[in-house]
Amino acid sequence: xxxxxxxxxxxxxxxxxxxxxxxxxxxxxxxxxxxxxxxxxxxxxxxxxxxxxxxxxxxxxxxxxxxxxxxxxxxxxxxxxxxxxxxxxxxxxxxxxxxxxxxxxxxxxxxxxxxxxxxxxxxxxxxxxxxxxxxxxxxxxxxxxxxxxxxxxxxxxxxxxxxxxxxxxxxxxxxxxxxxxxxxxxxxxxxxxxxxxxxxxxxxxxxxxxxxxxxxxxxxxxxxxxxxxxxxxxxxxxxxxxxxxxxxxxxxxxxxxxxxxxxxxxxxxxxxxxxxxxxxxxxxxxxxxxxxxxxxxxxxxxxxxxxxxxxxxxxxxxxxxxxxxxxxxxxxxxxxxxxxxxxxxxxxxxxxxxxxxxxxxxxxxxxxxxxxxxxxxxxxxxxxxxxxxxxxxxxxxxxxxxxxxxxxxxxxxxxxxxxxxxxxxxx
Length: 427
Description:
Layout (H helix, E strand, L loop, with lengths): L3 E9 L5 E5 L13 H10 L3 H15 L6 H16 L8 H10 L1 E5 L4 E9 L11 E10 L5 E10 L5 E3 L7 E2 L15 E4 L9 E3 L9 E13 L2 E11 L4 E8 L4 E6 L11 E2 L8 E5 L6 E6 L9 E4 L9 E4 L4 E3 L2 E9 L5 E8 L7 E4 L5 E2 L13 E2 L4 E3 L2 E8 L3 E8 H6 L2
Parallel strand pairs: 8-10
Antiparallel strand pairs: 1-28, 2-3, 4-5, 5-6, 6-7, 6-10, 9-14, 11-12, 12-13, 13-14, 15-16, 16-17, 17-18, 19-21, 20-21, 21-22, 22-23, 22-24, 25-27, 26-27, 27-28
Helix pairs in contact: 1-4, 2-4, 3-4
């Protein structure tokens, strides 16, 4: 086994991290009767000004200190309901509006069940960094009530001595939103969401926005993509899940403030676990993916959004990966070639992480492969929601070390550093 330095920091599920989300009631009644939404709005509108003020004060006493700009959120929600019911705004004062909005909101603990499967990339802002230090942006899969997955973020710094310091989470978390969208899921297709101008990245959560994403945005694999001539874009492949079907999609951002969520097309996009190379090779885009649930494939495309079947690259060989193999994030460019982190599944469905080295000019050629895993579920990494699993959606190079954030038992996130020369020597 490799000499892996495990950082003591561990991120765990936290039910106290909450955001305000829309609460839905039926919009249509039975047999011509008013709907639950109409009845509730009618009850609030019938309240006297004094009672509405008292009821709103009670809500704000309970929740205003727990959320950012709570009154604004209530007013936004009111306007969504008013548009659906075609209410006459002129007859409703602000306190009644806010109270109506409050009745159609609820707290959602987005990471109550699990926090897992991270990926890390260099942050767009490297200003003020001491020599040898790197500011990073990390994505995480957060799982809340109903086992719905969303994308959460943390910012941090890796020092020249390979120490990790994460920025503190702000007291309030905020969800991204789409301009012009109401509270309902949008039809499947491209959608653009925005981080609020006053929210830090560490306090931002991207929730499902379309019907294809209804039950989750899973396992974002981020990469800083080099378009050439100093033009970088941060891209990430993830799995959109609607409760019965999966679809690979692409997140695109240049500043981690505006995020484009774009469905991928083509036969390869019907699968999960796709990871994008960080630049074009011979003028084409390249992915690593698993098309048959067992082997790893190399896929090439002339565009970022359409992917057809690829060629088989790796099959299970060693005992720790005989059930199946997959990638653990985007390939990392080294002088020696493309370093591809892999996960393998062995006996008792135990997950381990290994590595492969691909030729830099011809990624279909495998130069080396670890015979034993560098990281495996053991001891404190064994217990959790899904035991015996270690899994990453992407590490990064920092000097001569590989920084690897990884999920533990589908429950928490741990961090490790591995010397790249040692990793290459193990192949």
